[in-house]
Amino acid sequence: MSSKVNQLLRKAVEGQRLTSGEGLFLLEEADVLSLGRAAREVSLRRHPEGYRTYNIDRNINYSNVCAAVCDFCAFYRKKNDEDAYVLDRETLYQKFDELIAIGGEQVLMQGGLHPDLKLEWYEDLLRDLKTRYPSVNLHAFSPPEIWFFHKLNKIPLRDVLVRLKEAGLGSIPGGGGEILVDRVRSEITRGKCMTDEWLEVMRVAHQIGLRSTATMMFGHIETLAERIEHLDRVRQLQDETGGFTAFICWTFQPEHTDMADVPPVGPFEYLKTQAVSRIYLDNVENVQSSWVTQGQKIGQLGLLFGANDMGSLMLEENVVSAAGTTHQLTLDQIRSSIAELGYTPRQRNVFYELVPEEEEVVLKEPPSNALPIVG
């Protein structure tokens, strides 16, 4: 390990902020094990407690109709496609009921950019679901969706977010971030919000009291410098608002997409990038491991490379699995992955508040008629 790498890692472990140039140097030059050790030290300084967390939620894609064209997406359809859909309320109720039956308390609800659904449709949906399921947090609508609501309805962005919050929106997922660099976004997607627009949705959401996650999908056409630029934009906004609860990165899954010829990056690159993310994002409290794209063992190893959270038991996942990735974990496997590392597994909510131990779900599994647990 070079003296400069050692110096920068020591700087990070001691709690000093790295510059973008220093972050890039580590991503380019540091070996994965040194990065992992440093990221673990940073994580332990922030999270000295003897537990690591997980969540139980369901990812419901209320529609697959999308006006945007993303080369990396195998899920979207145009509204006249034979397999295009918008879920009816009874189907949604069934999905919520199945989640609650296994102890879930959050729904991650996202769709495409539907050209025909007005803001009132989304407000009615939120009100209905919140009235029927008051204990379930509605973690819904990624920044590209919300920006699309704003443009389609010609309503100020703040008004859109206020109306959604008043209708029952509890928090916002960090989807659609991909790489927050306009060069990358303009090459791999058309008709979708750009970097400043994605960040503006999050900024305004935080200003009105909503919390959100931040994400990064990497391993396609971006450079290492652009990965750091993405992290830097997240860090800058977090300095301003403090509204991000967690950061999650995952690798691009090329199968069945228009970018199927892009060689997928593997666990080595994933662990290295997650470690640098933990080191660089000194103002984001939580980092979530991605077993969804990496599988159980690498997801578990992520807890030794800077993550303090094992992610979610997802009763249903459609977007990543449409691209060919179908890792599956049970609740017992998530809990044992944490316990094998010497930590107590603890269930949390989207705000990283621990569920009281007497209410935690330990052995319950989905009903036999539920959709498979797919990540």
From TrEMBL:
<dbReference type="Pfam" id="PF04055">
    <property type="entry name" value="Radical_SAM"/>
</dbReference>
<keyword id="KW-0808">Transferase</keyword>
<dbReference type="GO" id="GO:0044689">
    <property type="term" value="F:7,8-didemethyl-8-hydroxy-5-deazariboflavin synthase activity"/>
</dbReference>
<keyword id="KW-0560">Oxidoreductase</keyword>
<feature type="binding site">
    <location>
        <position position="142"/>
    </location>
    <ligand>
        <name>(3R)-3-methyl-D-ornithine</name>
    </ligand>
</feature>
<dbReference type="GO" id="GO:0005506">
    <property type="term" value="F:iron ion binding"/>
</dbReference>
<comment type="pathway">
    <text>Quinol/quinone metabolism; menaquinone biosynthesis.</text>
</comment>
<comment type="function">
    <text>Radical SAM enzyme that catalyzes the cyclization of dehypoxanthine futalosine (DHFL) into cyclic dehypoxanthine futalosine (CDHFL), a step in the biosynthesis of menaquinone (MK, vitamin K2).</text>
</comment>
<feature type="binding site">
    <location>
        <position position="70"/>
    </location>
    <ligand>
        <name>[4Fe-4S] cluster</name>
    </ligand>
</feature>
<comment type="similarity">
    <text>Belongs to the radical SAM superfamily. MqnC family.</text>
</comment>
<dbReference type="InterPro" id="IPR007197">
    <property type="entry name" value="rSAM"/>
</dbReference>
<keyword id="KW-0004">4Fe-4S</keyword>
<dbReference type="InterPro" id="IPR013785">
    <property type="entry name" value="Aldolase_TIM"/>
</dbReference>
<keyword id="KW-0474">Menaquinone biosynthesis</keyword>
<dbReference type="InterPro" id="IPR058240">
    <property type="entry name" value="rSAM_sf"/>
</dbReference>
<dbReference type="Pfam" id="PF19288">
    <property type="entry name" value="CofH_C"/>
</dbReference>
<keyword id="KW-0408">Iron</keyword>
<feature type="binding site">
    <location>
        <position position="290"/>
    </location>
    <ligand>
        <name>(3R)-3-methyl-D-ornithine</name>
    </ligand>
</feature>
<dbReference type="InterPro" id="IPR022431">
    <property type="entry name" value="Cyclic_DHFL_synthase_mqnC"/>
</dbReference>
<dbReference type="InterPro" id="IPR020050">
    <property type="entry name" value="FO_synthase_su2"/>
</dbReference>
<dbReference type="GO" id="GO:0009234">
    <property type="term" value="P:menaquinone biosynthetic process"/>
</dbReference>
<protein>
    <recommendedName>
        <fullName>Cyclic dehypoxanthine futalosine synthase</fullName>
        <ecNumber>1.21.98.1</ecNumber>
    </recommendedName>
</protein>
<feature type="domain" description="Radical SAM core">
    <location>
        <begin position="52"/>
        <end position="282"/>
    </location>
</feature>
<dbReference type="GO" id="GO:0046992">
    <property type="term" value="F:oxidoreductase activity, acting on X-H and Y-H to form an X-Y bond"/>
</dbReference>
<keyword id="KW-0479">Metal-binding</keyword>
<feature type="binding site">
    <location>
        <position position="66"/>
    </location>
    <ligand>
        <name>[4Fe-4S] cluster</name>
    </ligand>
</feature>
<dbReference type="GO" id="GO:0016765">
    <property type="term" value="F:transferase activity, transferring alkyl or aryl (other than methyl) groups"/>
</dbReference>
<dbReference type="GO" id="GO:0051539">
    <property type="term" value="F:4 iron, 4 sulfur cluster binding"/>
</dbReference>
<dbReference type="InterPro" id="IPR034405">
    <property type="entry name" value="F420"/>
</dbReference>
<feature type="binding site">
    <location>
        <position position="312"/>
    </location>
    <ligand>
        <name>(3R)-3-methyl-D-ornithine</name>
    </ligand>
</feature>
<keyword id="KW-0411">Iron-sulfur</keyword>
<keyword id="KW-0949">S-adenosyl-L-methionine</keyword>
<dbReference type="InterPro" id="IPR045567">
    <property type="entry name" value="CofH/MnqC-like_C"/>
</dbReference>
<feature type="binding site">
    <location>
        <position position="72"/>
    </location>
    <ligand>
        <name>S-adenosyl-L-methionine</name>
    </ligand>
</feature>
<feature type="binding site">
    <location>
        <position position="73"/>
    </location>
    <ligand>
        <name>[4Fe-4S] cluster</name>
    </ligand>
</feature>
<feature type="binding site">
    <location>
        <position position="178"/>
    </location>
    <ligand>
        <name>S-adenosyl-L-methionine</name>
    </ligand>
</feature>
